[in-house]
From TrEMBL:
The keyword tRNA-binding does not apply. Belongs to the NDK family. Residues 1-138 form the Nucleoside diphosphate kinase-like domain. Homotetramer. The lineage of its organism: Bacteria, Bacillati, Cyanobacteriota, Cyanophyceae, Chroococcidiopsidales. It comes from the Bacteria. It is found in: Cytoplasm. Its EC number is 2.7.4.6. This is Nucleoside diphosphate kinase.
Amino acid sequence: MERTFLAIKPDGVQRQLIGEIICRFETKGFTLVGLKFMKVSRELAEQHYDVHKEKPFFNGLVEFITSGPVTAMVWEGDGVVAAARKMIGATNPLSAEPGTIRGDFGVNIGRNLIHGSDAVETAQREIGLWFKQEELVDWQPTLSGWMRE
Ligand code: DAT
Ligand code: MG
C-alpha cells in the first residue's frame, strides 16, 4: 500500500492547526500509520531539504524547520502521495486553491504550514529519514470496507 510523509511545520503547530490538518486526511479516508511530535535537528533538516541545498532560500528553510516543534506523520492509502499534494495545495499559499490547506490557512511561501512528499520514491526516502521501521504501525481500519470496493 502506498505511503506518504507529511510534516506540519512549526507555523502550523504554533497556529494550532494540528487537529484541523490531521482531520482532513483522516476524514478523507487515508490511514495514519506513523505520528510523532518532535524538534528537528539541523542534520535531519539538511538531509530532508538536500534537493534544495543550492537554492537561496535553503538556509532560511533549515532555520525555520528547526525553530520549533513539528508533527511528523506517515499516511497510507491508494494514491496517497499525489492526493495529499492536492490537499496541501501549491507551494505559495497565495496561489494555492481555496479548499487546500495552504489555500485556506496561508499567505506566505516561507510559512506554508505543511510538507508533503512530491513522489512515491521521495516518500520512501523521507519516511526512511524520519521514521524507524518499528515506529510505523501496520493496521487495518474497520471502516475500510465502507471506503473502497
Ligand atoms: P513544496 O513544499 O511545495 O514541495 P518545494 O519542495 O519546492 O515546495 O520547496 C520546499 C520549501 O521551500 C517550500 O515548502 C517553501 C520553501 N520555498 C520554496 N520556494 C521558495 C522560494 N522561492 N522562496 C522562499 N521559500 C521557498
Ligand atoms: Mg518539495
